[in-house]
Amino acid sequence: xxxxxxxxxxxxxxxxxxxxxxxxxxxxxxxxxxxxxxxxxxxxxxxxxxxxxxxxxxxxxxxxxxxxxxxxxxxxxxxxxxxxxxxxxxxxxxxxxxxxxxxxxxxxxxxxxxxxxxxxxxxxxxxxxxxxxxxxxxxxxxxxxxxxxxxxxxxxxxxxxxxxxxxxxxxxxxx
Amino acid sequence: xxxxxxxxxxxxxxxxxxxxxxxxxxxxxxxxxxxxxxxxxxxxxxxxxxxxxxxxxxxxxxxxxxxxxxxxxxxxxxxxxxxxxxxxxxxxxxxxxxxxxxxxxxxxxxx
Lengths: 175, 111
Prior knowledge:
The complex is a heterodimer of chains A (175) and B (111). Chain A is of the alpha+beta class and 175 residues long. Chain A has 2 domains: 5-98, no CATH class; 108-174. In chain A, 50% of the residues lie in helices and 22% in strands. In chain A, the strands form 2 sheets. A 3-stranded antiparallel sheet of chain A has the order 1-3-2. A 3-stranded antiparallel sheet of chain A has the order 4-6-5. Chain B has one domain: Orthogonal Bundle (Arc Repressor Mutant, subunit A), CATH 1.10.10.10. Chain B contains 5 helices and 3 strands; from the N terminus they run ααβααββα. A 3-stranded antiparallel sheet of chain B has the order 1-3-2. In chain B, 59% of the residues lie in helices and 14% in strands. The termini of chain B are far apart. The chains are: A alpha+beta (175), B alpha+beta (111).
């Protein structure tokens, strides 16, 4: 039997990963189960019977292959299915009925470190985009203005994301 | 012998890190076995999520407090190093002082 795939576009802000998890759980209640995440916020859902699933997101952008095996093994041993990754976001799922631990992060310290990994990745990624844009600098004039526009948008995003994620870390530290 | 001052920088350990190290004193363990043991010996007060445990393992290994002793079926088994034992010993001293104080004032809390 061929499963119907439904594609949805859903953007999420990196400081709202908990809301994203809740949204994926709600989709599963409606019978739409995440199959794969693609770049540009594209999700493929498989249609089926409604399920009570837990969805959890981690951020790991630089796992070496030998560490990744160990990393994934820890999760699968605890009943989590790895649905793949998007950027550095790792998507995990398990049925509520499977029991065991409902969370992948059970202390604030490790939650903070997750956001810190995101910030280090983002802090590095953006200046490298900037280098590419500067390298492409030149005529024609419309192209130059397009470049300026993109850089401005990215700069605004950089500041916004940096501030918001830092704020989230601060909240966790004060608990 | 490592200088006490040098390992004191890791203190205080978080409750989860402390339990992880306590479990590894008795026997080398892999991740999932450790999760279950922590839950058991902490009488259910501490549960370790997979992401949290992976973070703790990475940090402790990087700081030379645990080391991998074997790997089967993609599961790595870790044991506590001498350095890890020294750090844990200092943490236990702190905990004992705290427990002493806790016992002393417990009766004054009422209820």
